[in-house]
Amino acid sequence: MSGLQPRYIKNLRIFPSMYTINDFDFTLPEALIAQRPASPRDHARLLVYDRKTRAITDDVFYNIGNWLPKDTTIVVNNSKVEKARMVFGGLEIFVLRQINDTTAEALVRPGKKFRPGKITELAPGLTAETLEMQEDGVRTLKLHPPLTEPAWEPHRLTPFPPYIAQDESLADEYQTVYAKDEGSKAAPTAGLHFTTELLDQLQDSGRSIVELTLHVGMGTFAPVKVEQIEDHVMHSEWYSIDAQNAGMLERSKHITAVGTTSARTLESIADGEPHKRIFAAGSGSTDIFITPGYTYRGLDALITNFHLPKSTLLMLVAALTGLDEMHRIYAHAIAEKYRFYSFGDAMLIL
Fold this sequence. Notes:
6 helices; 15% helix
């Protein structure tokens, strides 16, 4: 295992054939978009898919211990969601990256109010000067006063996805029970189903828990806007894993990734053969883009939610199941009225 070192994982992607965005489309009834999480968390439904037999089984998440191999290592992303959304009446700033106390890269709305060189009054005593606008619409803003000042706090909101109504009473439900390091702009949602008690049960039964961090950003939730998926440009996201956790991975016979963010981190740091995997400890940035045809190196099973049509997350799942099987699984989930997206139900791919 290599020592701690910064890394930049660049353009890890494979396109064995010319997939188009429409290959990853499906029709979802709006009623199946979950607006609230299951309560308790682990009472969400669980679809289990076995890649060897192609069998689909319907269950409940609190029974996941009945399906996971006894010797598996469960890998969780401990990133914590920060209140990156700030609303000022009809104006909105979504902070993607805080450069310093007064400068940030952000998405804005409406765009016409944030033209380069313009100073926008957000609220009494709060202003944003647009220094630069990138091709994708991201602005570099100079904010006054510094973001450390308490005047900003009443305007900060939990960055729920646009398909979930803003409801701050659900803010705690949009964090995993093991969240530690603040930095994500969206939740690593597969982990929302775990309770502390369920994690304890899994560990008591012999499974190990490994923690890593990937701060969720546009690399995870940016939409694909091109016809040919190989033309899509992934945004990089910061990750970290320490030597102790990387060492646990190398000693693992079987690895279950909790969520696409854990999966992408594992695939960014994994090397070697399936029977002798190497995982590079350290921190860095990754823009890995996983699509059908990719050969997974860092995981053996995946826990994930049900994702948006045409999303990079759906492509990652299809890389594990195969494209046709992904569509069959999703058709079953829709027919059985599983709940979709961030607050929805879960799937275990074995």
